[in-house]
Structures are given as structure tokens and as C-alpha cells.
Amino acid sequence: xxxxxxxxxxxxxxxxxxxxxxxxxxxxxxxxxxxxxxxxxxxxxxxxxxxxxxxxxxxxxxxxxxxxxxxxxxxxxxxxxxxxxxxxxxxxxxxxxxxxxxxxxxxxxxxxxxxxxxxxxxxxxxxxxxxxxxxxxxxxxxxxxxxxxxxxxxxxxxxxxxxxxxxxxxxxxxxxxxxxxxxxxxxxxxxxxxxxxxxxxxxxxxxxxxxxxxxxxxxxxxxxxxxxxxxxxxxxxxxxxxxxxxxxxxxxxxxxxxxxxxxxxxxxxxxxxxxxxxxxxxxxxxxxxxxxxxxxxxxxxxxxxxxxxxxxxxxxxxxxxxxxxxxxxxxxxxxxxxxxxxxxxxxxxxxxxxxxxxxxxxxxxxxxxxxxxxxxxxxxxxx
Length: 383
Prior knowledge:
With 383 residues, the protein is an alpha/beta fold. It folds into two domains: 2-176 and 360-382, Glycogen Phosphorylase B (Rossmann fold); 179-359, Rossmann fold. The chain is 43% helix and 17% strand. The chain has helices at residues 19-33, 68-81, 99-107, 119-127, 133-145, 155-162, 209-221, 237-246, 264-269, 289-296, 307-312, 327-339, 341-359, 361-382, and strands spanning 2-7, 37-44, 56-62, 88-92, 111-115, 148-151, 170-172, 195-200, 226-231, 253-257, 273-275, 300-304, 320-322. It has a seven-stranded parallel beta sheet with strand order 3-2-1-4-5-6-7. The chain has a six-stranded parallel beta sheet with strand order 10-9-8-11-12-13, with helices on both faces. The chain starts with a strand and ends with a helix.
């Protein structure tokens, strides 16, 4: 099966290490491993783009602020002319693009649209940017014209319906993880060594890192022998560093900076407790990649009792779930895990088993590929 996968979001570039880029390329890779021939098209900055994988042809579009959707679409048509006519088109929702709809209609093949976040709401809330009427119209046209829209969490289904997607054409398919990257043994913790608490991700408001810092300060005040290590970067790094200093944690927190994604498995295999935090006032529509990576690495997890997290993880069985925005509860979870090595092992082993059985990207890819013949058959009947 041949697929053309488009991403016309200028914030997702093939030379970045951010979660959205990892998601995009991991899905392409998994589709290729499941037997599809994928042509992946997205923006690229000045760095080296992701290396091609078996079954995947990557077409990076140099990003210079010009009309990215038009350039992505032009690259897709050029690929078709060179023999890469797809059986279906995939497009990751971008505020200013209906390129996938144009391509799919021209080629008379199904269009599958993926929604990872409520983009217009995020633009207003976190970026101070009001989407133009033209952007909103393109989004409506894309979602209304899609043969199938899949959202990564239940909460995003309402968003899709409200913006034009037809109710019978919306399905939920959470994100995944490349479990094969986390096959190594977990690092053994020496007797008396501090318990390593880890976080991987961007330093953005919705990740609640100020809660994590405060919780770690509270945990240490209760005698928990923990050290916090953070992989990532972003606009909140300096405020977080000041918060760490103000809480007297400078000797116990390490800011490791942004790292290549290839470094993440090794880091997590050495982390005892991995944390996802969330502010109380954030609508928890996420399907967080980091959480599935924590699970695949066999970390003991503390995460918010909210949204899809609560639906996919079981408190006390494969994670400790705490109320969002509750620093005391987050600290209690960290203290409990720091004090109980057998509990850490039990939760981590259970999370790892579930990741391999349920969360792998190849399971996500297989589901998408199973949809395509159904969509093509419906389209053929209409024609």
C-alpha cells in the first residue's frame, strides 16, 4: 500500500527533537515497518532532516516563512508524477492547510486526517495568536471533506465535530511508542544512591514543571533522597532555574538541555521515577508521548488522573495517578516511590508489559492501514 503523509505545520520541522516531530517520523517509520510505502512531506529548518527508514521516502521542505501548505502540496504532486501515486493521503492537522484534501480529491483516493491538539484554541491561549477566518475555513473544509478523522484522545472528538468533521467519521486512536528502542536492561541503582526522578519534554506551560519542582522540594523536605533530572528546553527554562534556586534545590536538580531523541531511551532506562505533571486549569486532551516512553522504559510513573491518562493507566497497578495541579499529592507519589523499591519495580514492569502489548507505534500503524481498504471501498461505491 502506498501512502502520502503531509504535515504543513511550520512548527513541526524534520530537523527538530520536539515531541511533535518524533511523533510524525515515528508513525512514518511504523507504517513502513508494517509494509506500507510512505512518502512523508514536512518542513525542515537548517539542520539535517530525519534519516529515511525502510519503506519511507522523506521529502523535506526548506522552511523560510513562505506559504508552506502550497509548497507541501506541490512536492506531493511532484512525487505523484514520479510514480508515487498513493492509495490514500494522510494529513496531520495544521491550522493553515487543506493540502491533503486538495491532493486526495485530485487523485480520487481517501483522506485521513489526524488531530493531535485543538490548534486554534492553543494558538489563542498559549501563543497569543488569533487564527484568521481563512485559517478556520481551511480547517473546516479539511475536516468536513475527510473520509476519516482520527483524534488521539476522547476529548478531541468534540473539537473535531465542532469544526466540521462528520460524527460517523471520527475515531479515537491514541499515540504510541517505539518499544524496540527501549529493549535494554534497566540500570541498577547502587545502595545508598539517590533516587533519580526524571522528566522529558518541552518547558511549556501545559507541562506543569513548576509543580514538579515544588513537589520535589516538598519530597526532599520529607526526607526523600531524590535527585531531579530534566531533558528538554523551552521558554520556561530560566524561570524554572530561578524557582529551583529559590527552593534550595540547586544541588539536587540537573537541567540536561535538549538532547537527540536517540539519547532518551538510555536516560529513561536509568531513571527510577518518571513524572508527568499537569496544571489544574489545562484541558487534558493530550495523548502524551513521554508517558508511553516512560512505560516502555519500565519507569515507575507518577501522572495526572485526567483525560486519556486515567483511561489508559490503572492507579496502583502500572502507575500512580494524582489530581492535576495538586503539588502535595504529586509529592506524596514521589515520596512513596522513593521509599519503596519493590513498588517501583512492580509498577515499572507492569507499565513496560502494557507498552509492548498495547502502545507500540506498529499497533497504531496497523490500525490505520486496516482502515484504508474500508475507506477505498466506500469511495469506489460512491464513484
